[in-house]
Amino acid sequence: MRTDYSDVSFWLATCPPYQPNAPLQGDTRADVAIIGGGFTGMATAYSLRKADPSLKVVVLESEVIGFGASGRNGSFAMTVIGLGIDILTMLKGKHNALEGHRYMERAVDAVGEQVEENNLDCDYTRPGFLRMATTPGYVKRIKKQIELVQELGIQGIEWLERDAARAEVNSDLYLGAWWEPRMALVNPVKLVREEKRVVQSLGAEIYEHTPVTRIERGADFMLKTPGGSVTAQKIVFATNAYSHLFPMIRRKQIPAWTYMIATEPLTDKQYEAIGWQHRQGVEDARNLIHYYRISPDNRLLMGGGPVGLSFGGDMQRDDSASAWQHLEEHIHYVFPALKDVKITHRWGGPFSVTLDLTPALGYVGDKRAVYSLGCIGHGVSMTHLNGQTIRDLILEQKTDLTDVFLVNRNVIPWPPEPLRLAASLGIRAYLQIEDWAYERELPKR
Ligand SMILES: Cc1cc2nc3c(=O)[nH]c(=O)nc-3n(C[C@H](O)[C@H](O)[C@H](O)COP(=O)(O)OP(=O)(O)OC[C@H]3O[C@@H](n4cnc5c(N)ncnc54)[C@H](O)[C@@H]3O)c2cc1C
Which of 375, 409, 416, 438 supports an S-S bond with 137, CB 3.0-4.6 Å? Predict the structure, then answer.
């Protein structure tokens, strides 16, 4: 049984020592069995036990809580949905884009409420979000996005001119920025472990090192694991980028990989040079975004750029020397003052992608099985509200959350291999070509 997870992410490497729960041994019964112990699994167990303390809720996690994307991410709890509001509007129309954005506003607030209500120790801050324009083309793109949000009636997002953007974070690449105060940063491993603590205190059972290896669907569900089984009336797939490994939801999503690096703590001189006093979360305006933040101990954490893909059920794509190299060079490119800074951590992880690049949740078959997937690298906040939506689906209650277009929508299936890989390569190539076209104007250094 694996015990050392320090190579999985910076967050897992730097968290206090952790004692996982024992694996499931023997057979047990549950009202609701949740497969997957990330934010979705924790938020669902929390919402269900709060709503009905008589429900027996069991969570089964194949490794440890936070092993998946929830323990590896950039930690931005933000309103971005799918690949962004302009792409969502193009794909799903204005009505749905507005509804999706409102859902995400609630999701960002839900993280803050959860942290406050349960006093979660997770380095939560709410510094806001900057989307930096690095070429004149990106200036136009971001201004058009801001026009769109204003037309939709969304408030609180504004354009910062060049000098105002550079006054927040000092790079001579920046030509202006999208500024949005509604955005929080966390330590994601601390958060998910704190959520585990609260969920257990509410009476849910959590088993770690307990992979679900088979699901039999009958009058009840039978979930098989190496050490025992769970017979459950209802089940939840909180398995995100691993969901294609389950025959019941095989075609709804594919995994794609994003990579991150962390520097050593910056010296006072280095930190002063980049002038990032308010510690906002920063992204650029690409399709395959770069995202970066400053940790509480003044490291620069940067992720994004190259995206990894795999064939079939292969989940072994967490390492990418070329992506890490790209990110290191990108740090030097954006912040030349950091050219001597050392990289101390390199990692990657899978996020979940639907064919129409839009998140989805809903029932599978009848109302006894619920899935949630497709956050496209923007799931830190969304998973927290999804937990409440899944609760309503499991309890078969029609609410404003279950009315959102993301729920029980028609999810276009990914084709079988080798077409699946061909389709995902095609989508990635399109996004890369568009980025390349915008970036022809980038200054050479
Ligand atoms: C490197 C990286 C950076 C990211 N940055 C951001 C960001 O800054 N902001 C943002 O909003 N989003 C970000 N994301 C996406 C975000 O982290 C995810 O959308 C979110 O964490 C998904 O949570 P989840 O609980 O649905 O899935 P996960 O956290 O992936 O949890 C799924 C769990 O299911 C378990 N599992 C799988 N198969 C089985 C099985 N057979 N039996 C039992 N358990 C199983 C896995 O071990 C895993 O723990 C990032 C993702 C990555 C990888």
Answer: 438
